[in-house]
Design a protein that fits this description.
Elements: H1 10-31, H2 33-62, E1 79-82, H3 89-92, E2 119-126, E3 132-136, E4 149-152
Amino acid sequence: MPKENRGFTLIELLVVIGILGILLAIVLIAINPARQFAQANNTARRSDVNTLLNAIHQFAADNKGVLPANMPARGAAAENISSVAADVCADISPTYVAQLPTDPTLNVPAVSDCAVAYDTGYQVSVDASGRVTVAASGAEDVGGTTPVISVTR
């Protein structure tokens, strides 16, 4: 009685591994983790910009239209919201926003203590007519275009 060999040949195993490799490559291209992370960071930036602008406007509404101290002068260039430039932390935190949000790529927690040095990674400016703009300069390239993330009110 002849002995039967059961199992796969080397060629069959190589073909299956090759097919799995091609499928994995297609899935990685379709998912594109780098693009997903960039989109998530940009979404966080949009939310943070709105949060900061809302807090500044709530402060102004409660103070008869007066903007927080240390804001850039009307028509001046945008300044970083930080402890050395547009230091609005003490005016808006914690009354109007629990913590100042920071750019996701800075890898630092939100600012909860205004007495220490901080930099949010976001900019604020006031135009000649008094409209406030908060912007995120660190927007990441998504699909060949780098979005402009800013809100003006």
